[in-house]
User: Fold these one by one.
Assistant:
Number 1:
Amino acid sequence: MPVCTPPSTLEFHNCHPEPREGGVWQLPRYPANVRHALNERGRMVSMDSCGVELRFVTPAQNIRITLTAEDADVEVQVYRGPFLLATHRLARGVPTALHLTPPERFPEATDAALASGGWSPDVWRIAPGRAACLFHHIETFGHPVRPPAASEKPAITWLAYGSSITHSHHGGYPYHAARLLHWNLLGKGLSGACHIEKEAADYLAATAAEVKADIVTAELGVNMRGGYTVEEFSRRAAGFVKTMRAVNPDTPLVLITAFTNSAHHSRAPRDDFERLHGFDAVLRDIASRASAAGDSRLHLIEGAEILPDLTLLSADLLHPSPSGHALMGHNLAERLRPLAGT
């Protein structure tokens, strides 16, 4: 039988490790009890490991860490502190040992410069991409290994909830923004499945409180335009804010309306487009009411201002291109920077 607790030598960031046979650990971003309460697609994509990081510190000059991607070929990025060191590819279903060695050129730069991105340059960060991944083992050949201390990580923590655009990938807008801001990101996007269920709201509120999040963003609406009324969206969005505020009364909470997509440039009216516009109006109303009630820490950002250029979408006219994500990350970072800690 597998052991019941994951290795204490690593930090499983943004992750709820679950034991599997053979001492292997599943790396989902949502716990099973929450996953199983979501919509059908949400149950699946919440197991995705994009946004998870395996973090550790060791003096070892050779490290072997073994991972498996269960459902798709995927890239794994390896960082030392804020610096991208290597990108490895996992073939679906094949346990793969990544051989890691420290960066050769770090001794050329000052300690202050290397640590200027909010991270100690001694922290290893293993970041899977868009696949459900398994952790097998880490080998440091007799050298000690430990999780990073709080002082070795960014001081500001950001929790981000939203659609596939927030779920994204290593180059997605929240990851890009977090790198620019030198923030610690918990990416909780649900590709095609951000339906604001009560169970999701309860979990996200509790998580924000547990990690002492300095800011929470919620990009809401686009995944619900095909199957929900404006009234139901309003009920769920208001419930999300109420739930978040119940346990995080002073945390800056940012609602983000739909990012630029074909609904903003439609040739003719469409029901789903009209619903999306209605959802955006709901978010504006929630923010306005909160302000009137004295909640100065609830903010609204217009998604169309974060991505103002339709041509920076991919050809589906919904999902940003790499350039679109980069611009969004830059624009959102500038909007979020003054809000954290306010």
Note: The longest strand covers residues 83-90.
Number 2:
Amino acid sequence: MGYSKVVLEEYGGPEVLKIKQETELPEPGPHEVRIRVQASSVAFTDCLVREGTYPGTRGLKPPMTPGYDLVGVVDKVGAAVTTLLVGQKVAELTVTGAYTEYVCLHENRLVPVPNELDSAEAVSMILSYMTAYQMLHRYAKVKRGDKVLITGAGGAVGTALLQLGQLEGLEMYGTESERKLNLVASLGATPINYKTENVSQKVRELSGAGVDAVFDGVGDFIGSYKMLAPHGTLVRYGTAKSGTHWGTATLLSLVGSGIWLALRQLFSKKSVPFYSIAPLRKKQAAWFREDLTALFSLLQQGKIKPVIAERIPMREVARAHQLIENRGVKGKVVLMIEEKG
């Protein structure tokens, strides 16, 4: 029995993503399970991996299979596996390798998923909602009534921050373009059109002394820092400012803002951590399992529901990447590896 997977033969645009047929299924090692993959998310990070500019995959070279996360069903277990059973739904943050119908992974890295959960909604928890959850609770340590600013609030992580922020009773402001302002408002935030309004002035009018936290995935770190209250936290994450191209100007801008923030830290009580999910998972593996399990529980209870812009079959993977690069997506794009998943 064969299977299909997406292969990146060379770095480049969406057109370099090709479907390849394998003639035999992979066999799990003693502590591995074979997973029939149902869904994987598509994010800016995947586009950076495809172009060869993502810092987390610098040591890898094509040919390779992209795909940062997955949800699927255990299809076969290795001889020494003790924690998982055939038919059990599982999730994993793979960084690469998820755009495939079958894959073998070590049992210790997999987090059980309630079988009744929709796979596209479940996979949305792994990268986008985990990022939002950990930035809120592990980094900013928000509490009820806090005032927060979310840049790019209509995207995958932005909408996750808004939904989780509502649960915590936060006062939220979200920047977006005109076409996403209604979405931001529907998720409980005061929308701010960053193209037509003075964001800093508007935030000061709404918050008074500044916000308790800013979650900035756009890259205007200096501007975000200036909107903080005296003891506020700026959580920096993501790579959206550069689109999918890390040019010299972008790198110089990021280095410059980093130096500026570092100098300000010498004379301030504000904090400016940078969040990156994969390195944090390596350092705090227990957090990853605990937090993802909590998110699955919230999803199961109906307390959160990811905004899914489109479910796209694996054979249209190039179109999925193009959608992300076009910047117009409201919420999450999910690649359906198994279309009935």
Note: The domain at 144-275 is CATH 3.40.50.720 (Rossmann fold).
Number 3:
Amino acid sequence: MCQLAAYVGSREAAPILLDALRLQEGYFGGQATGLATLDEGRIRIVKRPGPVDHVRATSDIAALTGTTGIAHSRYSLNVLKGPQYNLEGNAHPWPSEDGKTALMHNGIITNYRDHWARLRSSHTFTSYSPAVDDITDSEVALHLLDEKVQAGRPTGEALRETANSLTGMVLLVAVHADEPETVHIANWMQACTLAKGDGETMFTSSRIGLGGLRDEFDVFRAPRNSLITLTRDRVEVAKLDPTRRAPDPDLDEEALLEQSLRVLRDRGELDSVALLTALSKEGFEEAFHVPPEEWRRTYLMGHGDQNQIMEPLAAAAAKGRIGRRVKVRHEGGMDVPRVMWST
């Protein structure tokens, strides 16, 4: 349940991407912030625990230069257990061992331990913590991708093969130093908003992340099961896995609002994760007009588009139909902004 952004164009990427994260992090994110830019044939990365404003104030993240970049705001339920799960090594993006590739992920990889068992003897996992004897699941995707790139596969195809070897909720974003004006995205069933402007393209997890830039772009939601290439002038979308079909049930926004208000009347003020958890147990069937068994199958297949829910609720809040406020909470050793919902 992270929030991501990417930019390719003629403007400096860092301020655009950090603003995009800041607009999104209160919903799902803010526990750690990371940014990678491509500049002068190199990938430069700064990442730290904490939300955007904290990392801006305590690092040189805002000084990264380059007109292509990817950015990540992390949310992990493990972080709620304590700061030992929220170290710099857990933050995205990750660089490959030769520094030429960087990758970030949104979702939960359910078969990461199988890959880790094979990869750990030949690769360094910077997210490994002896205190918890585990890694961040997403880092296996970096090493799987890098193995394919080192073997001569083009980055886009290597990303496709990597994504299709993973199970769970999977959206991967990668850049390579030899492609300084290209961002590759592999999306199974995650939140993915694409934007095409005049000589520039963007990706954000939510339309909310585009903020005041929204009017400068043609904005659309990426299809499920898609392999996406962003360059300055083009947004190319191909099928990620032609052998699989990704369900995409239609959301009834009015039914979603009714179900959300019902939950909030019963339970009181909730953050976005708690509200989604309650709706997933009772409410999504009505909002998506699918039987409970079908919704459960869709979820188990890897559906993880939480922003599909947050965007209409944010729009309803702007009209005064549902309560919304931002509350600062302590998570993983950091003060993090959290959007709270109420009646």
Note: Residues 253-300+306-342 form a domain with the Arc Repressor Mutant, subunit A fold (CATH 1.10.10).
